[in-house]
TrEMBL record, chains A, B:
InterPro entries: Ectoine_synth, RmlC-like_jellyroll, RmlC_Cupin_sf. GO terms for biological process: ectoine biosynthetic process. One of its GO terms (molecular function) is ectoine synthase activity. This is L-ectoine synthase. Belongs to the ectoine synthase family. SUPFAM superfamilies: RmlC-like cupins. It comes from Novosphingobium malaysiense. It catalyses: (2S)-4-acetamido-2-aminobutanoate = L-ectoine + H2O. Catalyzes the circularization of gamma-N-acetyl-alpha,gamma-diaminobutyric acid (ADABA) to ectoine (1,4,5,6-tetrahydro-2-methyl-4-pyrimidine carboxylic acid), which is an excellent osmoprotectant. Keywords: Lyase. Pathway: Amine and polyamine biosynthesis; ectoine biosynthesis; L-ectoine from L-aspartate 4-semialdehyde: step 3/3. It holds the Pfam family Ectoine_synth.
Length: 137, 137
């Protein structure tokens, strides 16, 4: 059993800060769960253009509000506590933050913790040898 | 892109009520994410004996408090907002709820939504033919 505290993760090297957001990685690939699990803060006013070409992601909004624009369909959805979105088709999207958003995020395959968003707004594929999720069957 | 609202899930047939808990399934196996994602309420006073023999699970406490006892090690950990536990070794455990707990849960492989806890406190393995997570490689 792994037990971790968000407060401690935020003070360590698994708390990643970037342009418009920071993310506390509670579970990463090395934990062997087959997914990674992050608590992410999106700063007020941020406009984040993202396209995860190598990952599926789901996000549950816990605090704050904003919008997500689906660039595939042109639709814009409100984000507020209790709204979940899932990028099940590597959807290009823009998140616009009206009031600082706190959200719980799951990535499959799991993030290693060493990625940075590249110029397309993606995390690169994990090219290490043992990239299989723990429960691939 | 899938967008769902917890409030709506709670009013539909993806909100499962059982003895001591209820769980709103925001993402299930059929959504093709390779994991399932639930927001679960554990009622005050509940003592839940669990052993997921067929699944890995991670849980982030959002509200409330209680304890988790790891029956493998005998250790008891406090549960309160910001604490995450991950059952990475099919750990037998008991959750005791002091004040109603709200938590975000991820299961790998994904729950189909048709399971019930059996007499061992496990969900049975998914025996349907297409049980591979979407991103198994």
């Amino acid at each position: 059993m792994i037990v971790r505290k968000l407060k401690e993760i935020r003070q360590g090297d698994k708390n990643i800060k970037s342009d418009g957001w920071e993310s506390a990685r509670l579970l990463l690939k090395d934990d062997g769960m087959g997914f990674s699990f992050h608590v992410t803060t999106l700063y007020t006013g941020a406009e984040l253009h993202m396209h995860y070409q190598n990952h599926l992601e789901s996000v549950l909004i816990l605090k704050g509000n904003g919008t997500i624009e689906d660039l595939g369909t042109g639709e814009t959805h409100e984000l507020r506590p209790g709204v979940m979105y899932a990028l099940n088709d590597h959807d290009k999207h823009i998140v616009r933050v009206e009031n600082e958003i706190l959200c719980a995020c799951v990535f499959n395959p799991p993030v290693t913790g060493r990625e940075v968003h590249d110029e397309t707004g993606a995390y690169p594929a994990d090219t290490s040898e043992d990239r299989e999720p723990a429960l691939s069957e």
